[in-house]
C-alpha cells in the first residue's frame, strides 16, 4: 500500500523495508491530508507510523499558495488590502489594520485618537473571533461538540458588527489609509453593546464545560508540549508562545494604535502543552473584552474617523460628483498616482496567532517594490513534526488544532 | 540601561571592522549591511553576546535588485529582535546576481529553516549548509524563481487585459 503513495526511493519507504520488528509487524505510512476534515485546512503530512504512534512526520505546504507577495509588487497599495484579508481569514480586520498602519508609518500619518480606539475595538473583536474558532474547534476535535455550538453564534454576531462597519463579513477589506472609510453607524455600537452584554455568559459557560472537564484534560494535558526555549528557537509568537510561559506580546512590547492607553494583562501558561494554549486563548478573550470596554469608555468625543490626508484618503462620494478638487483626488488615489517616500518599513502587529509583520520596501513608485509578510503560522508550523513525534495519531489532530494553523496564512 | 544603537555599532565595528557597514536608523529600526561571508559569525555574535542578546529571529526574506551592479543584485534581509531590551535590528547581506549563495543560519535559529527554504523557492538563493533546501510553497517541478523581477506576474501573451489602463503597472508604460 505504501508503495502506491510514495516513490520507492523516499526515505520512509526505505526505512519500512529495512526495519524488522520482532513480532513481525511493520511500519506504515499514513497520509494526513491534503484534504482531511480533521486538519481544518489544506496541508499534507506524511506520517511514518508504528501502529498508532507517529515516528516521523513530513509536512508539505503550499496547496493554497496564491503569490500575494508577487501580486503586491504589481498593484497600488489600496489593492493590497484584500490580499491581507485572505491570509488569516479568521481575523482579517487585524491584517487590514496592520497593513494600514504600515502605510501610515511610511507616510508619517497621525491617526486621530478616536479612529485609533475604533481600530482597537475592531482588532480585539477579531481576536475574539479567532480564539472562538480555535478553542471551540479544539473542543470539537476532542469530541465535545456542544461548546462549539454555544459560542459559534457569537462569531456570527461579531461578523454582523463587521458588516455594520464595512459591509463585509469574512474578508473585510476594512479601513483606509488614515482611518476608516466611514464612521461607525449607531447600529454598529448597538450591536457591539449587545455582544458585550451577552457574550461573557456564553464564554463563561464554554470555559466551565472544558477547563475542569476530565475527558478534555486527559486529551490535552502534556500533549504536544513545547518548552519556552524550543518555542523561541522555532520562532513561536502569540498565544502559542505564551502557552509556554513567555510573556511576549507586540501590543505591550511595541504598542501601536494607542494600546498603551489600556490596562490589560498578558496571560501566560507554563508547560506549553495543548491545555495551556487553550487556557491562554481563553484568558485572552477576557482581556480583549476588557480592552473593548475600556476603549468604549475612553472614546473621545466627536466623530473623527480618519486623518485629514486628502492625498491618500478617498473623498466622500458626494463631493467627487460635485467638486473638482475631490474628483482630482479621487482619480489620483484610484489610479495609484500618489507619491510615496522611498523607505523600508517593518511594522508588526499582534495577530490572532502571533506577530504579524509587514516588511515593505518602496522605491517611490505607485506599488511596493517588495512586500514581505511575516506570517506567524508559517514560522511556527515548522515545529509541528517535532511536536507530534512519539504522539498518537489522535493527539496529532488535537495539537494541530491547538496551534491554530490557518492555511491561508501558512501559504500566503 | 537600555541598549543603545551606538553600543551595537561600536561592538560590531570593534570585532568585524569593515565587514559591517552602512549603519543607519530607518524609521524605528536600526539597520546595517554585512558582507555575505561573515553573516553567520555576525548573527552568532549578536545572538550570544551577553549585552546584545539578539535571541529571536523575527523575519528572513530576500529582495531582488536587478538594476544594481552584479555583486549586489540580491539581498537577504534578517530582522532580529532582543526581547529583554525590546530592540529590533535589520541586517542586510548583498549577494551576487549570477550565483547567489550565502551561508545558512539554520543551525543558529531553527526558525530560519523554512524561511530560507521560502527565500530559495522564490529567489533561487542557495543557502549553503541548509539541511533540506528544496521548494516549499511552489511545486517541486517548477524551474523558475517567481519573485525575481524578470518573472512576469501574468502570462504576457494575454491580450484581453491591459493593466496600463487600470493603474496597475509600476511605471505607467
From TrEMBL, chain A:
<dbReference type="GO" id="GO:0048038">
    <property type="term" value="F:quinone binding"/>
</dbReference>
<dbReference type="GO" id="GO:0050136">
    <property type="term" value="F:NADH dehydrogenase (quinone) (non-electrogenic) activity"/>
</dbReference>
<dbReference type="InterPro" id="IPR001135">
    <property type="entry name" value="NADH_Q_OxRdtase_suD"/>
</dbReference>
<keyword id="KW-0813">Transport</keyword>
<dbReference type="InterPro" id="IPR022885">
    <property type="entry name" value="NDH1_su_D/H"/>
</dbReference>
<protein>
    <recommendedName>
        <fullName>NADH-quinone oxidoreductase subunit D</fullName>
        <ecNumber>7.1.1.-</ecNumber>
    </recommendedName>
</protein>
<keyword id="KW-0472">Membrane</keyword>
<comment type="function">
    <text>NDH-1 shuttles electrons from NADH, via FMN and iron-sulfur (Fe-S) centers, to quinones in the respiratory chain. The immediate electron acceptor for the enzyme in this species is believed to be ubiquinone. Couples the redox reaction to proton translocation (for every two electrons transferred, four hydrogen ions are translocated across the cytoplasmic membrane), and thus conserves the redox energy in a proton gradient.</text>
</comment>
<dbReference type="GO" id="GO:0051287">
    <property type="term" value="F:NAD binding"/>
</dbReference>
<keyword id="KW-1278">Translocase</keyword>
<keyword id="KW-0874">Quinone</keyword>
<dbReference type="Pfam" id="PF00346">
    <property type="entry name" value="Complex1_49kDa"/>
</dbReference>
<dbReference type="InterPro" id="IPR014029">
    <property type="entry name" value="NADH_UbQ_OxRdtase_49kDa_CS"/>
</dbReference>
<comment type="similarity">
    <text>Belongs to the complex I 49 kDa subunit family.</text>
</comment>
<comment type="function">
    <text>NDH-1 shuttles electrons from NADH, via FMN and iron-sulfur (Fe-S) centers, to quinones in the respiratory chain. The immediate electron acceptor for the enzyme in this species is believed to be a menaquinone. Couples the redox reaction to proton translocation (for every two electrons transferred, four hydrogen ions are translocated across the cytoplasmic membrane), and thus conserves the redox energy in a proton gradient.</text>
</comment>
<comment type="subunit">
    <text>NDH-1 is composed of 14 different subunits. Subunits NuoB, C, D, E, F, and G constitute the peripheral sector of the complex.</text>
</comment>
<dbReference type="InterPro" id="IPR029014">
    <property type="entry name" value="NiFe-Hase_large"/>
</dbReference>
<keyword id="KW-0520">NAD</keyword>
<keyword id="KW-1003">Cell membrane</keyword>
<dbReference type="GO" id="GO:0005886">
    <property type="term" value="C:plasma membrane"/>
</dbReference>
<feature type="domain" description="NADH-quinone oxidoreductase subunit D">
    <location>
        <begin position="141"/>
        <end position="411"/>
    </location>
</feature>
From TrEMBL, chain B:
<keyword id="KW-0520">NAD</keyword>
<keyword id="KW-1003">Cell membrane</keyword>
<keyword id="KW-0874">Quinone</keyword>
<protein>
    <recommendedName>
        <fullName>NADH-quinone oxidoreductase subunit C</fullName>
        <ecNumber>7.1.1.-</ecNumber>
    </recommendedName>
</protein>
<comment type="subunit">
    <text>NDH-1 is composed of 14 different subunits. Subunits NuoB, C, D, E, F, and G constitute the peripheral sector of the complex.</text>
</comment>
<dbReference type="Pfam" id="PF00329">
    <property type="entry name" value="Complex1_30kDa"/>
</dbReference>
<keyword id="KW-1278">Translocase</keyword>
<feature type="domain" description="NADH:ubiquinone oxidoreductase 30kDa subunit">
    <location>
        <begin position="33"/>
        <end position="155"/>
    </location>
</feature>
<keyword id="KW-0472">Membrane</keyword>
<comment type="function">
    <text>NDH-1 shuttles electrons from NADH, via FMN and iron-sulfur (Fe-S) centers, to quinones in the respiratory chain. The immediate electron acceptor for the enzyme in this species is believed to be a menaquinone. Couples the redox reaction to proton translocation (for every two electrons transferred, four hydrogen ions are translocated across the cytoplasmic membrane), and thus conserves the redox energy in a proton gradient.</text>
</comment>
<comment type="similarity">
    <text>Belongs to the complex I 30 kDa subunit family.</text>
</comment>
<dbReference type="InterPro" id="IPR020396">
    <property type="entry name" value="NADH_UbQ_OxRdtase_CS"/>
</dbReference>
<dbReference type="InterPro" id="IPR001268">
    <property type="entry name" value="NADH_UbQ_OxRdtase_30kDa_su"/>
</dbReference>
<dbReference type="InterPro" id="IPR010218">
    <property type="entry name" value="NADH_DH_suC"/>
</dbReference>
<feature type="compositionally biased region" description="Basic and acidic residues">
    <location>
        <begin position="153"/>
        <end position="166"/>
    </location>
</feature>
<feature type="region of interest" description="Disordered">
    <location>
        <begin position="153"/>
        <end position="173"/>
    </location>
</feature>
<keyword id="KW-0813">Transport</keyword>
<dbReference type="InterPro" id="IPR037232">
    <property type="entry name" value="NADH_quin_OxRdtase_su_C/D-like"/>
</dbReference>
Amino acid at each position: 500500500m505504501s508503495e502506491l503513495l510514495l516513490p520507492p526511493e523516499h526515505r520512509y519507504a526505505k526505512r519500512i523495508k529495512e526495519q524488522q520488528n520482532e513480532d513481525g509487524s511493520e511500519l506504515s505510512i499514513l497520509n494526513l491530508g491534503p484534504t482531511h476534515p480533521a486538519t481544518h485546512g489544506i496541508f499534507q503530512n506524511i506520517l511514518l507510523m508504528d501502529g498508532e504512534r507517529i515516528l516521523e512526520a513530513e509536512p508539505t505546504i503550499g496547496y493554497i499558495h496564491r503569490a500575494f507577495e508577487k501580486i503586491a509588487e504589481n498593484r497600488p497599495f489600496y489593492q493590497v488590502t484584500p490580499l491581507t484579508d485572505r491570509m488569516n481569514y479568521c481575523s482579517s480586520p487585524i491584517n487590514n489594520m496592520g497593513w494600514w498602519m504600515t502605510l501610515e508609518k511610511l507616510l508619517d500619518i497621525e491617526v486621530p485618537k478616536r479612529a485609533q480606539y475604533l481600530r482597537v475595538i475592531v482588532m480585539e473583536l477579531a481576536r475574539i473571533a479567532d480564539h472562538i474558532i480555535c478553542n471551540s474547534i479544539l473542543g470539537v476535535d476532542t469530541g465535545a461538540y456542544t461548546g462549539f455550538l454555544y459560542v459559534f453564534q457569537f462569531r456570527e454576531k461579531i461578523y454582523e458588527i463587521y458588516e455594520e462597519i464595512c459591509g463585509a463579513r469574512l474578508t473585510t477589506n476594512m479601513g483606509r489609509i488614515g482611518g476608516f472609510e466611514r464612521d461607525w453607524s449607531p447600529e454598529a455600537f448597538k450591536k457591539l453593546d449587545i455582544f458585550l452584554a451577552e457574550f461573557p455568559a456564553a464564554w463563561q459557560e464554554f470555559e466551565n464545560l472544558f477547563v475542569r472537564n476530565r475527558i478534555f484534560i486527559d486529551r490535552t494535558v502534556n500533549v504536544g508540549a513545547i518548552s519556552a526555549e524550543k518555542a523561541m528557537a522555532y520562532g513561536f509568537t502569540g498565544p502559542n508562545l505564551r502557552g509556554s510561559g513567555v510573556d511576549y506580546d507586540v501590543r505591550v512590547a511595541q504598542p501601536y494604535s494607542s494600546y498603551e492607553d489600556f490596562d490589560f494583562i498578558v496571560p501566560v501558561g507554563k508547560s506549553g502543552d495543548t491545555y495551556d494554549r487553550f487556557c491562554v486563548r481563553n484568558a485572552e478573550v477576557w482581556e480583549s473584552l476588557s480592552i473593548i470596554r475600556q476603549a468604549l469608555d475612553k472614546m473621545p468625543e466627536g466623530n473623527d474617523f480618519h486623518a485629514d490626508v486628502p492625498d491618500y484618503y478617498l473623498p466622500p462620494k458626494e463631493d467627487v460628483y460635485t467638486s473638482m478638487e475631490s474628483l482630482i483626488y479621487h482619480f489620483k488615489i484610484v489610479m495609484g498616482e500618489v507619491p510615496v517616500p522611498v523607505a523600508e518599513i517593518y511594522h508588526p502587529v499582534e495577530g490572532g496567532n502571533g506577530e504579524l509583520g509587514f516588511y515593505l520596501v518602496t522605491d517611490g513608485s505607485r506599488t511596493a517594490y517588495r512586500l514581505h509578510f511575516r506570517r506567524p503560522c508559517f514560522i511556527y508550523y515548522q515545529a509541528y513534526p517535532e511536536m507530534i513525534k512519539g504522539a498518537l495519531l489522535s493527539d496529532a489532530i488535537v495539537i494541530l488544532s491547538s496551534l491554530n494553523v490557518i492555511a491561508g496564512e501558512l501559504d500566503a | 540601561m537600555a541598549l543603545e544603537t551606538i553600543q551595537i555599532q561600536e561592538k560590531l565595528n570593534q570585532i568585524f571592522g569593515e565587514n559591517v557597514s552602512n549603519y543607519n536608523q530607518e524609521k524605528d529600526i536600526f539597520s546595517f549591511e554585512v558582507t555575505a561571508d561573515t553573516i553567520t559569525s555576525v548573527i552568532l555574535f549578536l545572538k550570544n553576546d551577553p549585552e546584545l542578546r539578539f535571541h529571536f529571529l523575527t523575519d528572513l526574506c530576500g529582495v531582488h535588485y536587478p538594476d544594481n551592479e552584479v555583486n549586489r543584485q540580491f539581498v537577504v534581509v534578517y530582522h532580529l529582535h532582543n526581547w529583554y531590551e525590546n530592540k529590533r535590528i535589520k541586517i542586510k547581506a548583498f549577494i551576487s546576481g549570477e550565483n547567489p549563495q550565502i551561508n545558512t543560519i539554520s543551525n543558529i535559529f531553527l526558525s530560519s529553516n523554512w524561511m530560507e527554504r521560502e527565500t530559495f523557492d522564490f529567489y533561487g538563493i542557495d543557502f549553503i549548509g541548509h539541511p533540506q533546501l528544496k521548494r516549499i510553497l511552489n511545486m517541486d517541478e517548477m524551474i523558475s524563481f517567481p519573485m525575481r523581477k524578470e518573472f512576469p506576474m501574468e502570462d504576457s501573451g494575454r491580450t484581453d487585459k491591459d493593466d496600463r489602463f487600470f493603474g496597475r503597472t509600476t511605471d505607467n508604460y
